[in-house]
TrEMBL record:
Pfam families linked: cNMP_binding (PF00027)
Protein name, as recorded: cAMP-binding domain of CRP or a regulatory subunit of cAMP-dependent protein kinases
Single GO MF descriptor: kinase activity
Family annotation (Gene3D superfamilies): Jelly Rolls
Domain of life: Bacteria
Every Cyclic nucleotide-binding domain range: 17-116
Keyword Kinase: yes
Coiled coil: none
Length: 178
């Protein structure tokens, strides 16, 4: 956290969670923002009993169902730990108060939301324009840490393919390199 966030340090609570911990369930109202000190979180939606990963978050990232956090409406997705995590958490009430008292934090939040919007738009257009192979290659180039840290079935879910299809894609890439 930077110096502006340091002004809020007294409002944060340290939380350690094991892997596979649901921090927010789709349909619940988000009342906590998570700052990842160590570990990895993912967001996902339920589609007829099948979970579809929508995003991954790592050390230094802030995570909340921000739409729910700000509007007090039910979350559109779940948040889950993929690895054991050390998180710093802040409540919705404390965060809202901080936004009013610290305009720098509000500006940083706006920038964060803009970056998230750009990421979501890029992902959306990639789904429209690119095939599965192209999306995987894009992931390798733009986010190699995801390939290194995330289990294959979550990557497959994120790309919208089965794990078998992802194995075929990886095999094709390996053959092309030879």
């Amino acid at each position: 956290m930077n110096s502006d966030w340091d002004k809020l340090k007294h409002l944060f609570k340290r939380q350690e969670v094991p892997a596979k911990t649901t921090l927010l369930q789709e349909g619940q109202i988000s009342r906590t923002m998570f700052f990842i000190e160590k570990g990895c979180l993912r967001t996902w939606v339920n589609n007829d009993g099948k979970d579809i990963t929508t995003q991954f978050f790592f050390e230094g990232d802030r995570v909340a169902s921000i739409e729910s956090f700000r509007t007090k409406q039910p979350s559109l997705y779940s948040i889950e730990s993929l690895e054991p995590c050390i998180l710093q958490t802040i409540s919705q009430q404390d965060f809202q108060s901080a936004l009013q008292n610290l305009p720098e934090i509000k500006k940083e939040l706006e920038e964060h939301l803009f970056r998230r919007l750009l990421h979501t738009q890029k992902l959306f257009y990639s789904y429209l324009k690119n095939n599965h192979l192209q999306r995987y290659q894009e992931l390798i180039v733009e986010h190699p840490h995801i390939i290194q840290r995330i289990p294959q079935h979550y990557i497959a879910s994120y790309l919208g393919v089965t794990t078998v299809h992802l194995s075929r894609i990886k095999g094709k890439i390996a053959r092309e390199k030879k």
